[in-house]
Write a structure and sequence with these properties.
Elements (H helix, E strand, L loop, with lengths): L3 E7 L2 E7 L4 E5 L14 H14 L17 H12 L6 E2 H7 L6 H10 L11 E2 L11 H10 L5
Parallel strand pairs: 4-5
Antiparallel strand pairs: 1-2, 2-3
Helix pairs in contact: 2-4, 3-4
Amino acid sequence: MELSYATISSPVGTWTVEGTAQGITRVYLPHEKAPGASASPSAPVLLAARQLDEYFRGARTEFDVALAVTSATSFQHEVWRVLQSLPYGSVATYSAVAELAGRPRAARAVGNANHANPWPVIVPCHRVVASHGLGGYGGGEDVKRYLLTLEGVSV
């Protein structure tokens, strides 16, 4: 399966969507080294790029894109499913996500699953916060703060 790429500009940098004709395989954060845009990105890549652009412009609150099957643990997949259920403009603690994923004592593992999430923003790991603060984010605190502020969350 041939990978293709599309880039999206945002106030916090350039994001890159990677995918095949079957779905999105990865979203690169602005600080990550990513391939350049393809001459002819696949339809799922173009759709995800368009939806991300709409999100960054404040015109989209949900994503409807095909995500490629990825190798991960069953717990990671469950955490990502929970993340997709978190509404735009809301946050949940690592502990709350662990509870929703059926492993109430696995808050630290939720952090690891968030870090392994190949589709940031589309699968909104930025909506998971620490019980006493912002918490970490693979894209850095400034990017997490921007994403939450964009969604109207006071940080």
